Amino acid sequence: MKITGAQSLIKSLEAQGVEVIFGLPGGAILPVYDPIIDSTIRHILVRHEQGAGHMAEGYAQATGRPGVALVTSGPGATNIVTPISNAYMDSIPLVVITGQVPTAAIGTDAFQECDITGITQGITKHNWLITDVADIPTVIAEAFYVATTGRPGPVLVDFPKDIAQTEVEWVDPPSFDELDLPGYKPQLDGDAELIEAAAQMMATAERPVLYVGGGILKARGAGALRTLAETTGIPVVTTLMARGAFPDSHELCLGMPGMHGNYTAITAMQEADLLVSLGARFDDRVTGKLDGFAPKAQIIHVDIDPAELNKVRRADIGIVGDARRVTEALATVSASKTQTDRSAWWAQLSEWQERYPLTFEPAEEGQALKPQAVIEALAAHSPADTIVVAGVGQHQMWAAQHWSYETPYTWINSGGAGTMGFAVPGAIGAKVGEPGRTVWGIDGDGCFQMTAQELVTARVEGIPVKIAILNNSYLGMVRQWQEMFYEERYSEVYLTPDVPNFVMLAEAMGCVGIRVDRPEDVIPAIERANAINDRPVVIDFRTDASEKVFPMVPAGASNSDVVVHPTQREGA
Amino acid sequence: MAEPFSGTTEHTPVSHHILSVLVENKSGVLSRIAGLFSRRGFNIFSLAVAPAAEDQRFSRLTIVVDAESAPIAQVVGQLNKLINVVEINDMRPDEATERELLLATVSVGEEGRAALLNSMAHAGASIVDFSANSVTVSLSGTPAAVDAFERHLEANYAPVEVQRTGRVALPRLNPPA
């Protein structure tokens, strides 16, 4: 049967099990949009290509399935570069298909031409320019295979217009096993001898910590992690990318480490004699000043990406493998080992937890809302399986700190890239993937204004997300740094509280808009929002601009010099 | 015949490694490798590319890398992540047999020719082109030998136009213990 290249592309996507595409048509990709009408795949028409990319990411993070975005050439392609970079930093399986000018026009500076494979070379696992219509099923299969296996990540397929219009005999795509990729062989199982040595090192460690990163979630390894922690009794810290991988309420959980982690998690890593890194990468936001990081700790580093081992911190035992499989193997081997008595370690940890809990001062009569209190109210009055999607900044840190994450894939954010504007489209994508669950986007007023227009998409496509704006009328995290490190010289961070009018803006986009100024109105507003399921809701929470995120390890400082909340400091 | 230590020349400081990299012959593969080196801050001293003898689907790159710009394991690890990179053989200078080709055009009149031919004979160079006032010579040898010959030409003839290929390498058959 002869079909067009465009039809072949859509059939190839269907063959990979794609259910939904986030996209926006344009000239070069126009032929591909015709067979979409006849496809089983749902297409969600975004208002900006960046929105398509972040929606695909939110979908992937919530479901574990690859997110797919479809855009045109030139500006369509460059508009999705930020999401691709975001997916690269956070190892999100993302398949981006870009239209390209006809093959004969490539290299001539044709209308809406740009070298998107060149531009994205450094921020994709791999990319392809299709030059032969017969290659489509194989290239799409390769793209999905590369995006979803090993260390997941973004891939891009550039698709010239003439290829889309050329007829070809349809051939079923090869299975993943049949692909010819001689340079790509992810190693899944860890080396048995190294696992034995690691389990022995763990059993004898007096002050060990399981340092758990986003890789454990990518590997669907939360269950294995719990088994390992409970088998060994070793405390767990979950990084910003791993929140939810281990229940915050678990007695072995120390919470989040890093620049805005809690005192106990940060200090436990600092004082540890062994860090067992499972799918984490010693990011600078976790280590602080590297020279001063965990000076007494031996390191066991488990990662599916061999290049992560010894990249930042030398590993005493480096194990290449899938985080779930290696964690399972460590748990199995550990089951027959006797763990060292760690009562002194636990006494120390408990002392820190009692002395330095996460804290904030409640609002006094007539004061603006405390952002931390808003997050705690949201958590307390939303369903237990609510998915939280954050933007980037103070609100993100408070949402990571003050929401108790009990199950995997309930916390989604932009970690490595720190992409402001992620929350609204990210939440939309998560809701598309998990339509039966409540999805709260927690956003700042700065972030919200970067991608808010996607709420139009949400309304029109019937995707009832809820967005909580913590509106302090500032670029809050930048303001915090200017207050602390630039002598309160506030430069270009004030956004004005009332322009735009967020309630009117929300309603103009077909959403319900609610404004909350007083503490007593917080819970009723949340309950009202949670009861609305036929359209998106935006709540404009007016919060205290002077609130800062604590604890904080100042940039460039050692984790030993963590700055705690003012009420917990010496003499306070 | 034992060959002299050929690792360090004026073009490559002490700490370099030679990476022999087998890659798929796909469009953009060189750009992917060059881009990786530049964005990760790895320095390349030389790069030579040719079709792989064993299989037409592949090419072999010989990359001389500054091992001080980054740990060599990190360079190898990141290179290995490129989908088109099939295999990397990492050699220290004392583990490799290296060769490089030089072409040089020198201005030389009738009176200087005998001296030039004499020095060429010593170095093992040959004439590949000539005109009334110039000669193009070629020399293949160890990087150190090529360095020495290049220095000799620059000291004695002007102007000199020199082109070098960058080195290619294979593992030594009897590497040091």
Q: Could you explain how this protein is built, in words?
A:
The complex is a heterodimer of chains A (572) and B (177). Chain A contains 23 helices and 20 strands. Chain A is α/β, with parallel strands linked by helices and 572 residues long. Chain A has three domains: 2-178, Rossmann fold; 192-355, 3-Layer(aba) Sandwich (Rossmann fold); 371-542, Rossmann fold. A six-stranded parallel β-sheet of chain A has the order 3-2-4-5-7-6, sandwiched between helices. The model of chain A has no long low-confidence stretch (mean pLDDT 97). Chain B has two domains: 16-96, Alpha-Beta Plaits; 98-171, 2-Layer Sandwich (Alpha-Beta Plaits), CATH 3.30.70.1150. Chain A binds chain B through residues 117-118, 121-122, 125-126, 129, 131, 146, 181-184, 305-307, 309-311, and chain B through 23-24, 27-28, 31-32, 35-36, 39, 71, 73-74, 77-78, 80-87.
Kindly summarize this structure in a few lines.
Chain A has about 575 residues and is α/β, with parallel strands linked by helices. In chain A, helix 3 runs parallel beside helix 5 and helix 3 crosses helix 18.
Shape of chain A: globular
Helix share bin of chain A: 25-40%
Low-confidence stretches of chain B: 1-6
Number of strands of chain A: 20
Mean pLDDT of chain A: 97
Strand content of chain A: 15-25%
Largest interface: A-B, 19 and 22 residues
* CATH class value of the largest domain in chain A: Alpha Beta
Number of domains of chain B: 2
Task: Compute the separation of the termini of chain A in Å.
Answer: 78 Å
